[in-house]
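Teaching soon. Invent one.


***
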Amino acid sequence: MTALGIALLVIGSVLVVLEAHVPRLGLLGGPGVLTVTVGTVLAVAGLGGGIAVAVVAAALVAVTGVAVVGLSAVKGAAVAGRRVRSGPEGLIGRVGTVTAWTETAGKVQIDGALWRARQSWGLDDPETIHAGDEVVVERMSGLTLAVRRAQEWELAP
């Protein structure tokens, strides 16, 4: 019974650590805490401790585990709602300045970087873009940005 209790302690601990590193809002940590709690009862009982000692130890382990998993779930939920700030996904919605433009394609400068751009398709009233205009990135295909002319409310600080 002691070996089973120790095995459950190890498995439950791994699940709790996984929850801390890969937040799944309690889907790994909840069963992990339950497994650690049962493992504590089996290990303490197998080592000759009384039922009262096993229950107290299990309660302490359960409270600590629930606190750790709860903290992980709260922090994971807070991060999940944030907008991406880096990488290609971070460019969507950014405002840039057109440096050169010919009919439907050109170069756009965003945060000091020069990007290839094309006029976004699917607009009801496509406006002609000229050098010096402010544009908004709508999509990204490879290293080419799909842009449209920025509206007044998008340029306000």
About this structure: Residues 51-80 form the longest helix (30 residues). The CA atoms of residues 13 and 20 lie 11 Å apart.
